[in-house]
Amino acid sequence: MYLTNKAKLKIIPLGGLNEIGKNMTVFEYGNDIIVVDCGLAFPDDEMLGIDLVIPDISYLLKNKDKVKAIVLTHGHEDHIGALPYVLKQLNLPIYGTRLTLGLVENKLKEYGLLRDSKLITVKPKETVKIGQFKIEFIRTTHSIADSVALAIHTPVGVIFHSGDFKIDYTPIAGEVADFHRFAELGAQGVLVMLCDSTNIERPGYTMSERTVGETFDNLFRKAEQRIIVATFASNIHRVQQIIDSAHKFGRKVAISGRSMINVVNVAKELGYLDIPADILIDLDEANKLSFDKVVIITTGSQGEPMSALTRMASSEHKKVEIVPGDTVIISASAIPGNEKFISRVINQLFKKGAEVIYDTLADVHVSGHACQEEIKLLHTLIKPRFFIPVHGEYRHLKQHAHLAESLGMDPKNIFIADNGTVLEFTKSSGRITGTVTAGKVLVDGLGVGDVGNIVLRDRKHLSQDGLFVVVVTISKEKRSIIAGPDIISRGFVYVRESEDLIEEAKNLVRKTLSQCEKDDICEWTSIKTMIKDCLSSLLYEKTKRNPMILPIIMEI
Amino acid sequence: MYLTNKAKLKIIPLGGLNEIGKNMTVFEYGNDIIVVDCGLAFPDDEMLGIDLVIPDISYLLKNKDKVKAIVLTHGHEDHIGALPYVLKQLNLPIYGTRLTLGLVENKLKEYGLLRDSKLITVKPKETVKIGQFKIEFIRTTHSIADSVALAIHTPVGVIFHSGDFKIDYTPIAGEVADFHRFAELGAQGVLVMLCDSTNIERPGYTMSERTVGETFDNLFRKAEQRIIVATFASNIHRVQQIIDSAHKFGRKVAISGRSMINVVNVAKELGYLDIPADILIDLDEANKLSFDKVVIITTGSQGEPMSALTRMASSEHKKVEIVPGDTVIISASAIPGNEKFISRVINQLFKKGAEVIYDTLADVHVSGHACQEEIKLLHTLIKPRFFIPVHGEYRHLKQHAHLAESLGMDPKNIFIADNGTVLEFTKSSGRITGTVTAGKVLVDGLGVGDVGNIVLRDRKHLSQDGLFVVVVTISKEKRSIIAGPDIISRGFVYVRESEDLIEEAKNLVRKTLSQCEKDDICEWTSIKTMIKDCLSSLLYEKTKRNPMILPIIMEI
What we know:
nuclease (chains A, B), homodimer, globular, disordered N terminus, six-stranded mixed beta sheet
């Protein structure tokens, strides 16, 4: 369908469009393909039992020989989390900045994939040549250190990919975004821009990360006992600011939660955290110190059921017991879907007598994504000829298109695409030319892609009204009941209080079977369907519930 | 335990504390009990398959003879929704204002309970005597018309219950709250105040309902085609404003969604909606008109899966098909937990080419609850001696206690209570003296309270990893396998792709059974446990999943 045409550049998003997460974009020119980012998404509420979601990479597997590399913009899970799954099928060199690859290394080690992988560290301002592409890494600011945007120099022109970004004029421990290079690229001419849409609905500006540090200082000054701060493990700058405030007020710092310990170790080793000597202690030491000398940095800012903060709140943490006088700061805002988890943790912490500070009460969090005015700045500097809004649900892509139009862009040059959409660009034209396979691959335990709609539909059904199993053993010759019917139900009713209903169900099954015998119905499928139907009516009539009914007939 | 003490007033919350919803409070003096509000709550995410949650009224049933009446503050579901369930067990007279009882009537009719019920309409400023209580109804403003606060005059003093409220100086089609009576009560002396805590975390003031009308006017002025507005059915004032704007711009109005139709009918009959002649049409007529002459008011502002707006968005509505040019206004904000549903509907509407306006883009909604400055006004006017924050999770009750303290209240006079807490007051003292049974009763279909923790735990288990049933028929004498083992799985793996695993499982069961035979293990429970354990290990090893395993042994 899509024949190689040397004069055309293809851009094919495989994830991150019409969704939040699992970002992945394909850039293809002639016999060269590069993949930008390789992220995972967290399952929707309907994806019962699913651990995580990764992009469908059928297109890459079909074009195995063309794919030259994966290029990463930063180290968040929605940009690197699918790597272990993709690398098992496609062993590709991976390009990224130091911290990004430090986090990738950690992840690949866990999956036993590090030895075979090829990680190539690049620095902002550096350009690498991969096939006919020249990839230029450009510093941006985001809620993780070492984030970059990409200028992808291709034979048809320059493609600018913003990555995730915000405009922070006073970032922590790092430089501001490379505005001069953005301006220079814009002046020279950018053919296509792909730009982050996450916060497109928010007017104004995202505040600087530094403002959170000021809040920490104020809170630390007032706190008389222990301070516990929960935040995203990957937000090194936030962790740095907590450590800075702790140092300022003469407190030691202990780290809690596996991912927080991992990330702090990687960041420390690579020099992304500036940690005063002797300030870090472990939780056992922290318990021996006077509590007014202690800060604990922990995971669990989203109220995740197994996280360290949640375990502290429910008295299940082995080393940290919340006591009256503790100040707990939740330095994050809720990712949609997590509101109730967080609320529960806040309630539990309050009940234990802690003072809890969260984003509705104080400025303990800022977003990592650009709001409208920042996005306008980027559009204005880059002034691309064509524009593809990325990283967002349809509503965000649509609003981002609106914003681009309001800045004077021709609507014909804006493409609201979907995962799998093929966009083709020449030096002077751009259009959507087709689609390739793209979608969600569900990961459940060891299974990658083996849980499909039928399995999910069954889980949903079972979750709503439970299960009603009928087993009966029947003689092959006479077709009469030899044993049973036995009934087992789970998640339907409390059996001891429903003995009459169970008895009625058994009688109904007996009646149905003897009817089948009389009518000489002997096809199993028909008999099962009849049992299912009559039980379904009975149970719905008596309970207004629809459990999954499983008739099992053993023949001897 | 709690002997009647004539000198003491008991206040016992049975719902609405440490939760949002199912509001119900008991006031008891001597042989008289009155119940204020009788609401339902919507199930948490973990309450799989549950339809709704009502308060446990064991305490009322135990004191049946004392309970004299139910008094309602307003007609929202979280204040009246449990009535059909409670009235089946306790046939009590119900006091409320006209619109409140109009909605109650509607509800009782649906449940076939209207004929036997006794509804007594009261007006704001009216006082009714019930046993030793005098209940005074005082006008407030809220997101439903005809809301009242209560001054409960008791032998030990006046109890003030705010109900749900906000301070709206320019309410729609009604009077402002009765500030003068609040002030008078405060001047004369209020013993205890119970006050709404819903918006306690929000600084400042909630905007007037009227501001939404201004936004409607602006949006209606710009809209060139059809306008569809989704809002809460019970928000009569919002509906009034939509009709007013429609009238102003020469549009007809059609109503969609069962609860919207019901509420509009009740409100119209009782005179709570001022509807210009001939403006209301049905959906069929609306489809025949030029779309620039049409407004549709619909349910579905929370993206509820079966609601009218959701069906329109997914092309499943019989009479309304969304087309490019439609303006859809979602005049509501997300109730926590509904964010993703709403987002999905917004995305679908945008994809169909509609212009979608929601609360992040324009001022199309205001809350019905008071923010901090309004709550301070009420505290200042009422200046109660004792204070019980109500209607909120623990975090809200705690913040409300903070606010009361900041206004100069003695912390000893503030009670953060729980459902079931017994608070006793004399003319000069107040204290917590014990607890009574209180809690959540889950309603699932026809079952009220028959779904407990075991059933929910099973539903949860089934929802995560599905089900794995093993059936085998065994000879009673020889204990050898006669038929089977057969395996049925649902929601676990896609069976056709897992034939090897199923075969391996069958072999394992055969092996285990013959081992049992050899070892002369013949107790069914032991055999079943052995089968469960060996299968569980196998399945976890192969899939890292833990389906529910049900071994069924038939004996002949």
